[in-house]
Amino acid sequence: MQLSGGLRMPVPTRLASDGWWLCERPATALICNSPLQTGSGPMTDLSTPASDAGSAQASPIPVKPAIAVALAALADWLFYGQQIGISTIVFALALALGSLTANFATLNRSRMLLAGVLVLAGLVPAVEEFNAASLAFMILALGVGLLLTTNLQSYKLGEQAAALCDLFLVGPFRFFRDAIGLFNLPTLKTGLTIWFIPVAFGGIFVILLVSANPLLEKWIRLMSPGDAASYLSLSRILFWATALSIIWPFIHVWWRSKMAVSSALVEPAVLDQTPRSDRMELFGVATILRSLVLFNVLFAVQTILDAIYLWGNVALPADISYATYAHRGAYPLIVTALLAAGFVLAAMRPGGPAGQSKVIRPLVYLWVAQNVLLVMSSILRLDLYVQIYLLTWWRVAAFIWMVLVALGLVLIVARIVLNRSNDWLIRANLITLTATLYICSLVNFAAIIADYNVSHSREAGGKGVWIDMNYLLSLGPQALPAIDRAIALRGFEPALVSRRSCLVEQQAKETASWRSWGFRSWRLQRALEAQPKSSTTG
Q1: CB-facing half-sphere around the CA of 310: CA atoms within 13 A
Q2: DSSP letter, residue 30
Q3: Per-residue 3-state assignment (H helix, E strand, C coil) for 136-195
Q4: Who contacts 134 (Cβ-Cβ below 8 Å, separation ≥6)?
Q5: Nearest CA to 251 among 68, 415, 454?
């Protein structure tokens, strides 16, 4: 409205909110999106700040949900309980076609050819072999293709990278937000929003903890005898939920608008006066509080069982061996700890409301402490397993990885306590990783693995299995001292002596020229030259 003297006063937010009936589509708008005119006097634009989205608008016909469900059914048929290979390419092509169909009206036609070439190029490595690298190229190609064809704004390289991170990291959660948005009941919407994260993550943690602990699996089967399908159905439901959350960002395309920040700066008062119920977040204080209470209870069960059976050496049931108990939990518990760390980072973001809560902070510290105990239990489990089945390169790498995870959890707590930024946390983790890699570069792992396996083998009177000579020989010349000990324990075998001689020749060739000199190889050569000739020739 316009006051005397030419001054303009914006319409109060409450009046603007009550004026929804002046809009063209009162069923979907809370505030008019066009300025109101009273005679010839201009009035302030009553539109709320642009949301974070520059979304491609969808048809009112539920085509997109139907496409998403069809793709989830295809994913179930291709992946659930099946070996993964060329099926990923079939699904990627189906996903690209589904995204093309769902967003055909808003596609950038001039970039479709380039996007198609990039997607096909990204699928080529998976045709050769499906592995982590080919999967990464496939995901990147699908994301870049979607960005090229559906994002009509011009972004810089950094903004494009941020948009892709938003697509892959935040996008999956939008499926549940949009599904909740189908309900117009505010109470139901709020309740589902608050409890979704605790229930979803709690279900994932339950599956991981049960897979890591044969005792929990046994107790669950005792609670529902003869009904193993009920447990399997839970995992299938979670598979469908995960598949839909991954598919949905490609079907219902939603990009952050570059105007969102400027709009927020222009009209901060209107944004601040928006009712909190309309700004419910998946990681709000209520959600985080419920999640931490539930997660602490779930993890306490695993912590208590480890304290009793793993640390306390209490006898396990007759049908469960210590080797099974140790091996089952070593790796799933690390995945659990990584998911827990991701949740803490999302929940306790710098400057967020959860970080100021006097209730949430102690729960976070308690949960991180339980996760550190889980990692320590994983290290102990792996150590018990290695005592029986001896060392390998992958088991050494697992030990190092577990230590890094534990240090990462401690650094997360340090970031929260010291009120540091995520940049500080990234730098601290990079320094820790660099120092670890530097130390590892100085360690002769091949010699350590070979020496441990011989010393703890059954031939040497240890608790481990018989020496795997094929694996020992595959470690290379650095394992020669341990190989000589193994030959002495096993007795003279012409085949083993012949293969040992090949390693000696390989070592001699590697040290023949001063250009290939290395201190480690030089020490080994000195040790070999000091051995009596008869000790290895029988």
Answers
A1: 31
A2: S
A3: HHHHHHHHHHHHHHHCCCCCCHHHHHHHHHHHHHHHHHHHHHHHHHCCCCHHHHHHHHHH
A4: 125, 126, 128
A5: 68
Cα–Cα distance, 197 to 172 (Å, whole number): 13
Q: Which amino acid is at 284?
A: G
Could you tell me the two tokens for 483?
Answer: 């190989």
Q: From the CB of residue 454, how many other CB atoms can be counted at a distance below 10 Å?
A: 25
Q: Given the DSSP bridges, would you call strands 41-42 and 37-38 parallel, antiparallel or unpaired?
A: antiparallel
Please answer whether residues 154 and 245 qualify as being in contact, where contact means their C-beta atoms are separated by less than 8 angstroms: no
* CA–CA separation, 213 and 332 (whole Å): 9
Note the Cα 19 to chain centre separation in Å. Answer: 45
User: Six-digit token pair at 446?
Assistant: 């091949």
- Looking up tokens 């700004």 gives 279
DSSP string, 408-435: HHHHHHHHHHHT--HHHHHHHHHHHHHH
Whole-angstrom distance, CA of residue 140 vs CA of residue 373: 35
The two tokens of residue 471 are: 């694996």
Tokens of 405: 């995870």
Structure tokens at 273: 């006066």
Rg (CA), the chain: 30
Amino acid code (one letter) for 3:
L
User: What pTM does this model have?
Assistant: 0.53
Q: For residues 367 and 347, give the distance between their C-alpha atoms in angstroms, rounded to a whole number.
A: 13
CA-CA distance, 145 to 119, in Å (whole number)? 6
Partners of 2 in the β-ladder: 8
Distances in whole angstroms, Cα of residue 84 to Cα of each of 135, 248, 391: 11, 22, 29
**Do 390 and 453 form a contact (C-beta atoms < 8 A)?**
yes
Contact 450, 475 (CB under 8 A): yes
The identity of residue 85, as a single letter, is G
> Cα(78)–Cα(91) distance, rounded to whole angstroms?
8
pLDDT tens, the chain, 538 aa long: 444 444 454 544 444 444 433 343 333 333 334 443 434 333 333 333 333 444 434 343 468 888 888 999 999 999 988 888 888 899 999 999 998 888 888 888 888 888 889 889 988 988 888 888 888 888 888 988 888 888 766 567 777 788 888 788 877 887 777 776 665 556 555 666 677 778 888 888 888 888 777 778 777 777 654 444 444 566 788 888 888 888 988 888 877 665 443 443 333 333 344 444 434 456 677 788 888 888 888 888 888 888 887 777 777 777 777 666 666 666 777 788 778 888 887 777 776 667 677 788 888 888 888 888 888 888 888 888 888 888 889 889 888 988 888 898 888 888 888 888 878 888 998 999 899 989 988 899 999 999 999 998 988 888 888 888 899 889 988 888 888 888 888 877 788 888 888 888 888 887 777 777 788 888 888 888 887 765 554 4
Tokens of 28: 């979907």
Which stretches of 358-421 are DSSP H helices?
360-389, 393-418
Q: How far apart are CA 73 and CA 323, in angstroms?
A: 38
